[in-house]
Structure formats: C-alpha cells, structure tokens
Amino acid sequence: MSDAKTISPTARKGRVLFASLIGTTIEFYDFYIYATAAVLVFPRLFFPGADPTTAMLSSFATFSIAFFARPVGALAFGHFGDRVGRKATLVAALMTMGVSTVAIGLLPTHASVGIIAPLLLALCRFGQGLGLGGEWGGAVLLATENAPPGKKAWFGMFPQLGAPIGFILSTGAFIVLTSTLSEAQFEAWGWRLPFLASAVLVFVGLWVRLKITETPEFQKAVDRNERVKAPAVTLFAHHKMALFLGTFSGVTTFTLFYLMTVFALGWATTGMGLARGDVLPVQLIGVLFFAAFIPVTALLADKYGQVKVLIASSVGIGLFGALFAPLFDAGLTGLLIFFALGFGLMGCTYGPIGAAMARPFPTTVRYTGASMAFNLAGIVGASLAPYLATWLARNYGLAAVGGYLALSAVVTILALWGMGRVSPETEL
C-alpha cells in the first residue's frame, strides 16, 4: 500500500488532496506567524527608538518584502514546475519557506546586533516570500490536475483551506503564549516558539509530499514532448492577457485578507487600545467563517461558473467597505460582526479563485502562469495594504480604509468581467 502505483484511484486522489492541503497549511502558518509578530513584537524588538506608529510602519515595510519576493519565487519554481514536474518543485518550495521561518526564530534582536537585526529579518522575510511564491501554484495544480470533469473548483479549494487552517494554528499559538507567559517572557523568548515549531510541520509536509506521484496532465505533456524550454518567456509572449486579468482578479482577495488580519489587529491594539488577548480570539472566530465559506463557494463555482461566483463575492466585499468603520468602532461586539462578515466574504472569493487562476493557462506554462498571477495580485492588493490602511486611518479615519477596500473590489470586478469575455478555449 505504500507504493503509489498499487493504491486505488480514490485513495490516490485522497492522498493528493491531503498533500496539497498540508503543504499550504504549513506555508500559510509560516506566513501568518510573521504577520502576527510584525504587529505584536517586531516593532519593539527590531525597530526600537521610534514612536509606536513609526515602528509599526517599519515592521509592516519588512512584511511587504515577501510580496515582492513572491513573483521571483513564482518564476524560479514555476520554471522547474513546468519543466521538471509539480512534485519535486513543491518539495523545494516547502523547504525554502521552512528554513526561512525557523531562521527567524533564531535571529538576534536590535538590542544585540543593532541595525544588522532588521536586515537579517528582511532577508528571512524575502526567503519566506520566495518559498510561498512557488508553493501556491504548485499546490493548486496538484489538486486541479487530478480533478475529474466538473470538479475543478472543488478540488482546487483544498489547498485554499490551508489558509484558514494555517491562520488558526498560528493565531492559536500566539493566544496560548500570550495567556501563559508574562509580557517579559513573551518578548524575551516566547515569540520565537511558533517560528521554531515550524520545523516539525515542515517535516510532516515533506513526508506526505514525497509519497505522491506526478499529476496526470503534466505526465501527458511529458509523454507528448510538449514542454517548452523557457516557460516564463512563453508566458509573457503568448499569454499576457490571461496573466493581466488573472492578476487583477485577485486584487480584492489579497486586500481584504490583509486588512482583516494585519491591519485590523494592529489598529485594534494600537489605534483603539484594545488588549491583544481580547482581539485575537475574536479574530479567530472570524476565521472560522473564512473556512466555512470556502467549500460552499467552490461547490457553487462548479455549478454556476467560477467568474459569476467571484463577481458576486467581490460585489459583497465592495458593500462591506461601507460597513468597515461603523462595525470597527462598535467595541468587541461590533468587532466580532466585523470579523465574521469580512472573513466570510474572504472565504467566498477564496474558494473558487485557485481553479479560476489556473485554468486560463495551458499545461506547459500553467505552474508559472498561475503562480505569477496569484503573486502579482499579492503585490498589487496586499504588499502595502497594512501600511496604506494605517496611514489612511491615521489621517482620514476608518471610513477611508473602507473606501480603499471598495475601490479594490471595483478593480477586481472589471478584471473578472474581462475573464468572462475570453475565448471558449480559456473560458472559466
């Protein structure tokens, strides 16, 4: 039964889906513990000597580095994913992300090595982005290229579930630490534990991924000698419109998520003076809505079409922008409703988007194309979102942050409308 060739097709598909899920869970766990630490501890430990807002903005600047590293990872890992195979590339991406995350847990702080500390932090953050840039596209393809007809969105939502699960694990870890350790203990060494614990998760992920086989669609491309020598060159030469539309179709997904996580946590604990021990559990409840709506909208996308479901979800996000300030300012009860609505809408857009971004690209450049679209969307939609939202809130109030979110929804709706008008061969 350990031989992948002897197990039943159902068991093999189950193994593939679990491998796509466990990998993205680990990757997003690693990514989110950085996001949480960027709010809770990095401003004081790596950027001391500045006022709280400036330190927070500096911490958010290192947070954004990963988004600019992700397209580099998409090109590098995408090349090998389209040339060598999905399986081997996914293993390498997971290793890159894992090593970078564990290294953050071992870094000296500014008090020990001065300016070298934030530079090392930025380097490790770049490594995180590099690994995640190659992870997402491969995980989605691992699932969708094994999917039966009419089940692309359903299979493609399994790696998407790694996002809320990874967030729950990371936030849960910080909740436990902040409730069991004193402030001094947490700041001295407690914050390092979630980063170091990532080593165990990476080992589990590698063990699972080494047991899977190559996807049938990629294997057919190999058998037919269809692979191209330079997938990135082919992508930019012949699939520019698919890349452009795919990028902007994901802008709202990223903007909403990082407003709901990094910005919301930072503003609630600094701008509103709420205790992080009160905000983190409320945020965690919201993530349950995120997880719940991913499979729901994946099923709807397979039935009614990916573009239609994504447009409806984006309209909902735009309307949510008008509620941003009233709910955020209504205390913990309003904050709970805020997180439930925002994360629920996040699940609505996140369920179908994996299959939607992968489908317009042919097998020979699909790893590179889907990865680039997803990660370029991250740059446009999220890399500066916490920074810009904090600046808008400080200078113009939370209503301006809601307007920023609504504007991103309009951009995404226009891109999705363009996707719906592409040729039948690439119709989503």
UniProtKB/TrEMBL annotation:
- Protein keywords: Cell membrane, Membrane, Transmembrane, Transmembrane helix, Transport
This protein's membrane topology, according to the annotation, is:
Multi-pass membrane protein
Supply the InterPro entries for this chain.
MFS_dom, MFS_sugar_transport-like, MFS_trans_sf
Show the stretches that span the lipid bilayer: 16-35, 55-77, 154-177, 189-210, 242-268, 280-300, 307-328, 334-358, 370-390, 396-417
> What highest taxon heads this organism's lineage?
Bacteria
Q: Does the keyword Membrane apply?
A: yes
Does this UniProt record's set of keywords contain Transit peptide? no
Ranges for domain Major facilitator superfamily (MFS) profile: 16-427
Cellular compartments annotated: Cell membrane
Protein name per the record: MFS transporter
Q: Lineage of the native species?
A: Bacteria, Pseudomonadati, Pseudomonadota, Alphaproteobacteria, Caulobacterales
